[in-house]
Amino acid sequence: MGWIERYVRRDGTVVRGHWRSPAGAGRQTLIFLGVVAVVALGGAANGGGPRPGAPGAPRVSDRPKPRWTASYPVRQPSPQPRPEPTWTVSYPVRWER
Fold first, then answer.
1. pLDDT value at 8 more than 60
2. What pTM was estimated for this model as a whole?
3. Which of 6, 7, 65, 91 is the residue whose CA sits 20 to 30 A from 72?
4. CA dist 70 to 46, 73, 75, 97, Å?
5. Which is it for the CA torsion 35, 37, 40, 46, positive or negative?
């Protein structure tokens, strides 16, 4: 729509000049600002440090290798085979079903 010039209403109220956005422009502007914020703040999410390919960034061979640790006990597979299950019922169970 654009710029609206100064005018006087029927009841005598003076309306100064102002900018009037077209319908739907507010939503489009909000989406645009959201995309700009994601792009602008995207580098800050990972610490904002030097990127891996940038000059002065540590080379992959200079970085320490991650050590995986677990805060729970990890069971190692048993070297002995598991025992066969024993029958707990007095009648035969048909497993082929």
1. yes
2. 0.32
3. 65
4. 24, 7, 11, 41
5. negative
